[in-house]
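Q: Protein A?
A:
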Amino acid sequence: MPDGRRAEAGIFGFDGYIPTTAIAEVETSSHDVWMQVAGDAYRMEYRSFRAAMDTKNFSKLVIRCIEAFSVQLSHTAVSNAVHDVNHRLARWLLMCHDRVTGNEIELTHDFIATMLAVRRPSVTTSLHILEGHGFIKAERGLITIRNRVALEEFAQDAYGKPESEYRRLMKDLFQ
């Protein structure tokens, strides 16, 4: 926003690509892309990307990634409107966990607050609630997923639909 406020619209990892503008033959994205946790990423020059779009398998993969991301975006908007901070945080941690190897996610309370568009104290309170249930362990700058199954149950309908849609969209591409 013009006043500097930010919120996350979507999240991706080794499950997709960004920016979606390249598919529309637009070289510059209006969105900020942050690498939230340490890891590896690949980068393609715009011209190389556009050339690769001429191949059937690559273009099919990219288009399906866009569709999966679109589903995630719509569910994020709905979740932000109808779920409380505890359920939104559970959803967001599960989404992060889907995109990292292992159970540890290096994130600060401030960063999570920005991603969820809430005040930092709300994140701290919600982390305490999730930790009290035994779903996670929260330390300074580090969250460890301890009981993913229970965390998914706690998240209820805030988590799962975009993930199942991603699996459906990608199933025949990797056989």
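Q: Protein B?
A:
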Amino acid sequence: MFSIIKKTGFIILFTVFCLSARAQQKPQYTQYVFNNFLLNPALSGIENYTDVKAGYRSQWTGLEGAPVTGYLTINAPIGKNFLQGDATAFPASGGINPSSRLYTQQYQAAEPHHGIGLTIVSDKTGPISQTTIDATYAYHLGLTARLNLAVGVAAGFSHNVLNRSQVTLVNPLDPVFYNIDNNQWKPDLGFGVWAYASDYFVGFSVQQLLPQNLFVISDNNAYQNKTVAHYFLTGGFKVFLNDDMTLLPSVLFKMIKPVPTTFDINMKLSFQDKLWLGASYRRGDSFAALAGININSFVNVGYSYDFTTSELRTVSSGTHEIVIGILLNNRYKVTCPQHTF
């Protein structure tokens, strides 16, 4: 097997890469609680504005060749009824605080409508870079007077590149390595379901549905580095501490064979529609602190810092992630999401 030996820290990283070589993984996020659309296309068009978010994640800071991820997501509703307000509890004047008890009491399920979106994710780990571009579509309808269901799909392609100049071989003449197609385009497909009300949500999604052969790795026998499906199951509910403060516990289970199932436990405390603080625990990996501010009805910002608890803590100073959100065509001038808390 070829190994990367340019930096001592990178040998550790490459070991992690080799352990998952038969199950190529997508990037992981801490700020998905701020943007669940990253994991589930069913959230396309869930809010009554065009939701734009740009994020950057630097994982395992201080470790040479550690994962660095950047992304851009855009989604918006389509449908006359929805855009005229039938899918929300907001009057045209701007409405009440979505975190308040009164909003929960007046909440009504969405009128049937469509949502469309786009996700662009660029991820680089050592010599391997992957850029995935997916278009998304979702259909939303009200199951009851207060419960909504959305079903969505994501389809696109991924561009995978192996930078040979960053790899040092045990056998410099390894023919398998030099016969690798190091610039590959592969189709991508995902699916999701999202049920939501004023005070809870449940979602299930699958990413990387189409298995693909990527770069060949050589040990005693050549084998393919294959992509595998990623399964996500999540849920959360809102607890009203008073009219101005809400608590949102949530959990995310991630299943990727043959890697053991892992989970995140999150807690988000919201102060009206202005500020939120949070904490997260990822099994066997990290604790995280999160914070966000809704500056006005046009822009919001979220930040998180992961404290590494795995073996990598000896060579890593943690993980930073920042997200900037833009609310376009925000006709009700809301300053925080209504349907995604």
